[in-house]
Structure formats: C-alpha cells, structure tokens
Amino acid sequence: MSTIDPAQFREAMGRTASGVTVVTSDGAAGRVGVTVSSLCSLSMEPPSVLFCLHRDSRSLPAILANGVFAANILAQGQHRVADSFAGLIPEYRDDRFAAGEWDALTTGAPILQGALCRFDCKVAQVFEFGTHRIVAGEVLALESHATDPLVYSDRGYRRIHAA
C-alpha cells in the first residue's frame, strides 16, 4: 500500500503540462464526450492510442458499449470546448456538443472541426487499474493540422513558445 498522500500526488501531477483532449463517441448507447488529459500513443503496429477515465465516469459505459471513440486533441483557442466537456460551463451542460462544430470520419464518432489532431478509433481493449479504466483504441482514420496545441498546466491553459 502506498504511503503517498493523495492530495500531494494530485498537486504534483497538476504541475505537469499536457495536451487537452476531448474523447467523444456515438452509437446505440448514445452520443457522449468528456475532457481527458491522459491521451497518449500506444503502438505503431497497429496504430493505436490510449486514454484513462475514472471508473465512475458517466461517459465510459457509452464509449465501451458503442465500441468506438474519437480523440480530439484541442488546438489553441479551443478552451471553451474543453471546459464544456469538463462540465464547467452551465449553459452547455445539457448539450456539450454545442460548444463546437462537429463532423465524422470512419466510425461516426464526433470529430471536432479545427482540432490539432483527430483520431477516429475502435475500442481494442480495456484495462482496469486502481480507480481508472485504461481504454486502448486502434486508430482507423486520422487528421492533423499545423497549428498550436492547447496545453494545460498548474490549473490553467498555457501557450507553448519556441525556445
């Protein structure tokens, strides 16, 4: 059993910088989306990514039941979309998708227009660890654009400047 104080761990992790991703899904189980900060590449063969969600996330059951998701990595200026899918904007709580313009690629999962990168995926495997589920997805289609990423660190959005 760990002797690390959870509050101290959360504080330290909050200081790290990460891209901001909205994971979306659509299908028989409904249209859902959630802001995550834990998307990363998993494998080149097959092309795949993974993200982590708390096991009590209201979006997780629909993502798994639909069997597909899109990982929309946000571009600078898309913080309103991130905040909407994090549940931080009251006027968007009933329709979080109203904060952006959406289309689809292969799976039908909502793809955010203007995002830095858009990965359209099928759920490949789900792992359990602690309080979270790790969802691995095989990338079926993708698009990327040459623009600046939206970055989150120390409880706020940041800009990246070249060294």
Explain this structure.
The chain has 163 residues and is mainly beta. The strands form 3 sheets. The protein has a 7-stranded antiparallel beta sheet with strand order 3-2-6-9-10-5-4, sandwiched between helices. Strands 1-11-12 form a 3-stranded antiparallel beta sheet, with no helix packed on it. A two-stranded antiparallel ribbon has the order 7-8. It has 3 helices and 12 strands. The mean pLDDT is 94. It has one domain: Pnp Oxidase, Chain A, CATH 2.30.110.10. The radius of gyration is 16 Å and the shape is globular. The longest helix is centred in the N-terminal third of the chain and has 9 residues, at 6-14.
CATH architecture: Roll
Low-confidence stretches: none
Identify the CATH homologous superfamily.
Answer: Electron Transport, Fmn-binding Protein, Chain A
Q: Name the helix and strand elements from N-terminus to C-terminus, one letter apiece.
A: HEEEEEHEHEEEEEE
Q: Count the strands?
A: 12
**Biggest sheet layout:** 7 strands, antiparallel
Strand and helix layout:
Elements (H helix, E strand, L loop, with lengths): L5 H9 L3 E2 L1 E5 L6 E5 L3 E5 L2 E8 L5 H7 L1 E6 L5 H7 L16 E2 L7 E2 L4 E13 L2 E13 L6 E3 L2 E3 L5
Antiparallel strand pairs: 1-11, 2-3, 2-6, 4-5, 5-10, 6-9, 7-8, 9-10, 11-12
